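Z., the sequence and structure:
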Amino acid sequence: MPMTTLVDAMLQDVRYALRGLRRQPAFAAVAIATLAVGIGGGTTVFSFVRAILLRPLPYAEPSQLVRIFETNPLRGWTRNIAAPANWADWRTRNHAFSGIAAYEQFNANGSGASDVFLTGFGEPQGLKSLGVSGDFFDVLGVRPLMGRTFSEDEMYDGKSRVAVLSFGLWQSVFGGDPQTVGRTITLSGRAYDVVGVMPRGFFFPGRDVQLWLPFGYTPDLIARSRRPHWLGVVGRLRPDVSVERASEEMIAIARQLESEYPDTNTQMSVSLEPFRDSLVGSARTPMLMLGGAVGLLFLIVCGNLANLQLGRVLGRSRELAIRQALGAARGRLVRQLATESAVLAFAGGALGVGLAATGQAALTRFAASAVPLFADVQTDRSVLLFAVVLSIAAPILFGVMPLRLSSHQTHLSEKAPSATRNASTLRSVLVAGEVALSIVLVVGAVLLVRSLNRLQDVDPGFDRDDAVAFTLSLPAARYPDAPKRFLAAQEIERRLRDAPGIQAVGATSTLALRGMTWSGDATIEGRAPADFERELQHMATTEGYFRAMRTRLLAGRFFEQGDTRDKPPVAIVNETLARRYFRNLSPADVIGRRITFGRPTDQSPWNTIVGVVADERQNGLDKPVGPTAYSPLAQLMQNPLTFVLRSPEPPDALVALARRTVSGVDKDLALTDVTTLDDLVDGAMEGHRFRTALLAAFAAMALFLAALGLYGVLTYFVSQRLRELGIRLALGATPAELCRMVVGQGMRPVVSGGILGLVAAIGSTRLIQSLLFGVEPLDPVTFATAGLALALTAFAACAIPAIRATRVDPIVALREE
């Protein structure tokens, strides 16, 4: 066929398809909307999956990058941050890596970003900085957009006053000025020379980091820091070295260090993890779950459309037979139906892309904290290509069975028994398949909903209402020692406490639910270290902190103003510590006992326990509470600090008050990480809420589509058996009997599909076990709820056709036949 003739024929098919769809607007609207839901949902989830799991990392040969963690079964470490001295030895003793860089990471679960304050550009601006080793950028294999990065000797104290800016900071603060490199800026009261600007798209370890600074440690500090751990470590493998070989060598080095430093490195080993895997972390399972869910939904969409198309082909059987009798070839008819499917897919795909863009933006705002910091969710060419692929795949999946049916439609009679019988069987099979896929999604959604409900019932250990928190970092340039930092913090707290409407105010080294900044060893007086779990989490607070958080006091007292640096050290412990370390004592009996924060050989001072408080969740609502001890800030000054203000005043008013108060003490300080305690708790559940909401929406859509398919099958069943129904009524059948017949016809594929789906769900729920909290994968209530939801939905879908069957007029039905 000449090309022009083929094009003309295709255009004619398109015009005919559009006319046919205009004559059936209800069918066209349902089909396009269904496709848009499937393609839009799939594209939205793919945009998140791509950003988190698939987008190329902005480093040279990222497959050669690995994270290096310390492990220790004595402490329960499987992927812990490293001690600086161990990192220094790894660098000099290994042969598997071309470089091993480090960066500050005081929290094993965090990005390591610290707050610094940029002054000289109007109001002080809080920025997120990251301290790194001199070879950091070389190991990543990334060159700056402008200027240079750090040299090896610049990471040491005295030569470390240089900074590298992110592209975003260079644009937002410095207006993209090329003269920024070489400029001196003031960060937290100290002058730094800007030596470079990184290219657009570069990040490490998350997109919240706005500039990078050298460590600024002395070589001696690094060499003797083998007990404290505060470094994240990333290495670049040599091209001919595998992860397995590098792991063997690093474990051998760890054994050497264990032999040389038994006091600090007993059973200390290492583990290697591909860098992308370390970035993705716990986000992999939710993304794979959502990807699988949207795949099931897309199959349900295609099955539903195939069902609709089958019904439409059967309704056009006489038309197709007449066209064939008049000379239309079978291939011509098949091409026409294929064109109609393609038109539907094109319209549904276009609408789906629009829904995807809207959904992506809404979900990004709705669950910003549920997305890893490194991920940049956007609708790029790969996401659009994915939408196109779905739009092409859809007509293939939902059009093949109607095309096969139409290719065998040769009867001029409106009744083609074999074709009708085959179509009815196909439609029932499709409904059963849709039900099976739907029940898998429903079971998963109910599990996540029940898990979220359990999580919402968890007591965070504080009162979340009427309180705001903000973080404040006191720059060493202005507050060089602990006494000066404590006096500044004390003055800020005093002024806030004296402000009108403030009920309580306190400060802490680590706010609840934000993870611990450090942990340490502990020794109980009169007990051998082997008698109890030696490591605990350690915090420092002011005397007003527990009152500001409304933490329950179980025994003893809170800290007081008299707990100063020149007085005997005291401590407050949480309920978990009291229960684990003092198994046979009540909280009241723990008061007066002594604990030291160190090992017996460290000659650390003894701290008298003056209070026992209720557990406060630190690492997440779904994480177990560990033993925690609190020291008075006056006796253990920490920086930065998080202040908590409790007042019935609106949060905005409290934040404004805090800004004025802090500025009154030091105009160059800026508040960071401002939040309400209510938002803090909600943020801890945001990831759970995000995936629960998405899966629940997919499950609801799947049930609706399955019900729609069932409704279509029964409607066709009733329309094709009007004469039989009329005869039954004429012979004395009751409406209830006809209703049972129609419902029974509809429930057969539902029962078979439901059983198949429940069996599949039993296997699939184990895949999401790590996402559940307080609920077992085979929870019987969940499966019963899913079965009940399916039964009610199916009954609702059967009701309308069943009622219609009972209203058939026998005379009219027989006359029509």
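Residues 417-456 form the longest helix (40 residues). The radius of gyration is 34 Å.

Let me know what you think.
H.
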